[in-house]
Amino acid sequence: MTIRLERASKRYGNVTVVQDLDLEIVDGEFFTLLGASGSGKTTTLRLIAGLERLDAGRISLGGKLVNDPAAGVFAPPEQRGLGMVFQSYALWPHLTVGGNLALGLEERRMPRAEIAAKIAAAMTQVGLPDLAHRYPHELSGGQQQRVALARALVAEPRIMLLDEPLSNVDAAVREQVRTEIRALQRRLGITAILVTHDQVEAMSVSDRIGIMNEGRIVQVDRPDALYHRPRSAFVATFLGNANLLRGEATGDSVRVGEAAIQVAQPVAKGPATLMLRPECVAFGAGPNAFAAQIREATLMGSLTRYDVHVPALGRDLRIEEASVGAPRQGEVSIMLPPDRLVPLAE
Amino acid sequence: MKRRSVLGLLAATATLPLTSFAARADDSLDQLHGQAKKEGAVVMYTSVPTFLLDRWKELFEKQYPGVPVTYFRSGTGKVLARIESERRAHQVGGDVVWMADPTTFAGLVANKALISYQPPEWNKITLAKEPHGFYTAGRVLVGVLLVNKKLLPEPPKSFADLTKPEYKGKIAIASPLVSGSTNIIDGILWKDPAFGWNYFEALKKNDVLVLNDVPDVARSVASGERAAGISLTMYKYQPEFKDSPMEIVFPTEGTVLVPSPLGILAGSPHPAAAKLFYRFLLSPPAQAVLSEAGIYPARGDVLPPAGLPALKDVKSLLPDPEWIIAHQRENTARWRQTFGG
Amino acid sequence: MAEGIVRRLLSTFGFIAVAVVTAVIFLFVSIYPYIELLRTSLSDDAGRLTGANWTGAFAAQYLLLTPLLHSMSVGIGTALTATALGALLAWFSVRTDLPGARAVLPFVAIPHIIPGFQLASAWVLIFTRGGLWDTMLLGRAPVPPYGGIAIWLVLTLHLYIFSFMASAGVLSTLDSSLEEAARVAGLRPWRVLARVTLPLMVPAMLSGLLLCFAYAMEEFGAPSLLGAPTGYSTLTTSIYELATTPPLSFGSASVLSIVLGAVAVLVLIGNLRLAARTRIAMISGKASGRGKFALGRWRWPLTAVVWIFLLATSFGPLAALALTSFLDTWGHGYGPGNWTLARHAALISNPELAQAVLNTFGMAVIAAAAATLVGVVTAYGHIRLRARWAAAMDRISFLSFATPGLVIGVALTLAFGGGLINLYGTYAILVIAYIVRFSGIAVRSVSTDLARIGPDLEAAGRIAGLPPARVIARITLPIAREGIVAGFLLAFINCVKEISATSLLVSQGHETLAYEAYLRFQEGNYTQGSAVSLWMIALSLAITALAARRGGKESREILT
User: Fold this and answer.
1) Which helix (H) or strand (E) element contains residue A35?
2) Looking at CA atoms only, how far is residue C455 from chain A in angstroms?
């Protein structure tokens, strides 16, 4: 089911938490809202859920307008037919797992047998077929998480909202559940929106990611495109580490410090910033090669991280290289591959 | 005996209204019973203890079937407040009213809340009859000394004795602010120049214990907390005191009589039943119920409580309700000042 | 059950409709009476504006100043001794190796669960001449049976639980490393106690002190039975007298009520402020691996003293009431030869008492259910909707709870004793008094629980397809059930024990069990009074125990 937000805005008092947000999420897509806390991503999700009301703009789900303050339209959450997993899981402590799943179905006056069948199906889907009679507090954190997922899915919604669902599970379980959620979403063919501040999580499951900052979406793209072709310094640094080289573009090269750095594609004249991922810097000779001194080498496991000083650029760069043998030391030559240098919007 | 009277309501003794319903001598009990059955009920407003009410209700309903008795029983003040508010709203709900405190009826008479009625039983009453027939005493509470014979082989014989040094720390009295009968007893003593407030100040100097109510004085004397006190005859007749070392002493100055007034409300919903019940309450069987409980009947021809002399054979003191009403505010304030509340 | 009623109401009529009706009625009955109270204090008998009631009260020393002085003396004395006693016992029970320390709480609670007037009656029965003490040949009683000192001691026993709970709360969450650090720094155990532990307890003790002061000032039952015999009048007994004995003086009664109410309310507001500050400054950290203070060679003597005290102050009053209820004839001692079951038999066959039991249950159930409704509406409006009307209800319910029962009684008499809304002599006016007086308890209890429920739980209900009212009914209220049930039971138990407002508003046919007991003690009928009291206390203890069990974590609060 397609989700569309047009110029959506939300204020709390004087603080605008979501501003003029335009977004279209297509049917069957796994979309992630990624941002730091306070960036407005959870509010956006809650606006879609109907837990918050827009101050301006419109939201439609599957082509149906659900919120438009100008037209006085607001469909409350219970009429939007969504599933949602909360960060806290929000499992009702007074009900068993089965009761948690059944509550919404009972509200729809569904026959008992049908409810039981749906509960069994949902619990099987999340891999906990035998726990329906337990109370939430009797379950482990990972189990509670799956129950929350089952509850979100039991009514077979076409849209599933996930609000930081994995932030309370152990690192080991997190990766597994993440994969399962993704698989489940594909199998059911539903639209999913995930809210997270974890870039790895976002990149590993999403079809597309929207990066949020101060109530706005700064870039929407496929994960690989976001990582390798960020359009702004904010996106570049938010997704992983980045070396940012600020200088003056002269056409086919950019002057940084004393050096002229060649780029693969032309850059408009004037002040320019080039982004280069640490793992893209190479040791050795070639185009854009510079002498450098290693200031610090840190073995991080599969990678070794170097902080090197490049006199020609008048600054330090960070480099990551697959760990082989003892870390490099002393004077080295480094190379900035022209096709890996990404010009950023100023 | 509780005292919660609303003196504000007692619009102090005004001149008596002489427009009264004359009693018709030809009201025979049978006729009244017939009319009462049509009226279907009789309602008493009262502050008299329930164990007496229950006994009368039982006797009356047996003697006059078809006229069930209901009563509104509460503290004096609340009963008077109800009568007054109903009278103002012209919705009188009670037929017969019987209070413990003789000072309470002057206001009712002044407000024309009562009818005058003098049935044949009227003539058998020996005291405290309102001269125009608006009310009569229905029973007499008798204020006496209670003494613990075990503690005091030589008990006090008079009110005056209680201030003697030998009884220092041994006397209990009740508070006139709580106990209506004590208010009457003290009213006689306050008014009497031989006693007055000097007497109470002497009692205070003698380390008297001021309990809330008269039954507590009986408890105090019987249990040995104090050796003697001012209270009523009736407690000696209650089970928990019957065999106690507590005895009754009639003070030499005279025994205080506290008549409880009984009357019929004007504009009552069951006028015939009211008269019937009124006459029943003054009849020998109903009056005998009082004697059994250690209370003196108002009728001279019914035997007094077992073991006690007839009232006409003892020296007695009768209260002056008008004086008590007129001096109430002053006496209450004085009491609070003297005994602290 | 209370929760069920509230749920059904909300499901049927929706939250807004129920909230509006509840709020309007509650605010009316809780505010209007005080307007009447103020008006009466400024009016003469004919209703004309006058300051005479105030000037008169201040001019006649016996009217206002003496009772005020007595109330303050009792309040301050009780606060000091109760605080010291409570803190000491709390320390023994939480921080020392005193045997049986964990079992202390119920024994601290019993003299509080027994209403003040019953504790006072037991006091008289034990310590008066010819009472249990000297009948049992223990010699002259060590304490006076009546008067200011008796009131002070009785109220100390009745109220020290507040200080005990406050101190025990701090002591059990106190990070023991704070004390260990002092030991390492070279302080001997007793010095640690004086320099570290005690100073940390000060805010809690101060809070207990204020609570004890306010409740001692408010108490009516104990001073009315113990004060009068020696002329020790307090504000409460004076108000009662002015409002019930002729010549009635509601003008003066309202002046005294305003003075008493103002003192009590101000002190309790002060305590609330203090408690809020204390909680912020509270020492975090878990009570882990604590070193208990070793009493050493004092251990067994202190054990004996503490336990004799606890057993004497909890079972002593009960035993005194029980023995008196079995007493056959006064003046022949309390031995088995003078025992009878006649009093209890008389109670069982007494239709007035059967009526009183019915009244007590009926009024307490209705009032507690209404208080619970007020609690739910207020807590939900206040915490979830952040509505201003709910904040006002929260505040007013607290103020009403802080207001002495006698003051509420006078105010309601003035407001509904005639005029437009005449509820004089009705069942309803007692129920209203209980609702006004005890809604604050339910509000606090429900609020505590509601504040702990994350808003996500309700959001999840909306997502699952439940409209708002259904979310309240199916999710919020069931989760807040413990708080709601505890609030209901607490309000219920307080209604059962209430006599101060009751004594002014009660009318024939509407007596409660507590009032029947009080009346008997007041007129000196100790045998029947004791019998009624025993049954009532048994009922109170049973319900309190039930509430403590149902209340779970809050069980400690329930006892106070």
Assistant:
1) strand A30-35
2) 9
